[in-house]
Amino acid sequence: MHLKRIRDWILDCVFPVSCIACNAPKHTMTNPDGFVCSACLANISSHQWLFCPVCNTKLAGFAQCPTHRGPMRFLGVASSYQNNLLKHLIWRYKYEFCEPLARPLGAMLAEYFIKICKPYCDAHAPEWIITTIPLSHKRMRWRGFNQGALLAQEASQRVNIPYAPMLSRMHFRKPQMELATKTEREQNIRGAFAVRRDCAIQHKRIIIVDDIATSGATLVEASRILKLAGAKEIIGLVLARNSSA
Ligand SMILES: [Zn+2]
Ligand SMILES: [Zn+2]
């Protein structure tokens, strides 16, 4: 890759001069996080429902999917992956390593959570805790940050629910994105996680935050392990779902 392009990307990330979507100069941007102006962020409309983590069906209120009563009760999906701006922001965040985008994206997650998930969580407020999917060491070295963990921490601060890493990654598997079928993904991820020894999971209700869900296999496997370790209940929260991947 051309060095100048790399330098421009880095500068753009650290000192954005304009909205990365519409190029409005920064001084006209009302969003204090920078990077994306408020007007562009407002164009990413947020979902009004919860979804089944397995079949992606919209759920009626907080009811679990009648077909898939697995370890994850429901999945909150903040917005649609069909939204080109959101897709672009997630791409820059994950693959162009634009780490500060965790702030506006985390804010988006928190806003959806407060509106759609929080009324459910309020009943047992002190028992909830936010966690994330751990990355393999290889991925972590490559990206330099865990995109899910940063989102989880941003959301945690904004929704006032504590964050704790709870899982560790056992071995390097193939990235789920590289596998075509749901069965392959389920097999690939099986046994990929273990519970960290330093955290209390018994009787907790856990919100697993990640950037994107695809087949849902990763979230369901993480939920299975947390349930085995004594968690009372698990729900998921992601920015978007890429069902076509
Ligand atoms: Zn803009
Ligand atoms: Zn379902």
Could you explain how this protein is built, in words?
By secondary structure, the protein is α/β, with parallel strands linked by helices. It has a single domain, classed as 3-Layer(aba) Sandwich (Rossmann fold), CATH 3.40.50. It is 36% helix and 15% strand. The protein is built from eight helices and seven strands. A five-stranded mixed beta sheet has the order 1-2-7-6-3. A two-stranded antiparallel ribbon has the order 4-5. β6, α8 and β7 form a beta-alpha-beta unit. The two termini are 26 Å apart. It binds zinc ion (ZN) (2 copies). One zinc ion binds at residues 52, 54-55, 57, 65, 67-68.
Features:
245 residues; alpha/beta; Rossmann fold; five-stranded mixed sheet; two-stranded antiparallel sheet; binds zinc ion
List the topology elements.
Layout lengths: L2 H12 L23 H5 L7 E2 L20 E6 L6 H12 L6 H20 L6 E5 L4 H7 L3 H13 L7 E3 L12 H8 L3 E3 L9 E9 L3 H12 L4 E9 L4
Parallel strand pairs: 2-7, 3-6, 6-7
Antiparallel strand pairs: 1-2, 4-5
Helix pairs in contact: 4-6
This protein binds zinc ion (2 copies).
The site of one zinc ion has 7 residues, from loops.
* Gyration radius, in Å: 18 Å
On the 0 to 100 scale, the average pLDDT is: 89
- Indicate the CATH class: Alpha Beta
Low-confidence stretches: none
Q: What strand line-up does the widest sheet have?
A: 1-2-7-6-3
Shape: globular
CATH-defined architecture: 3-Layer(aba) Sandwich
Strand content: 15-25%
Q: Could you describe the largest sheet, including whether it forms a barrel?
A: 5 strands, mixed
Secondary structure tally, helices: 8
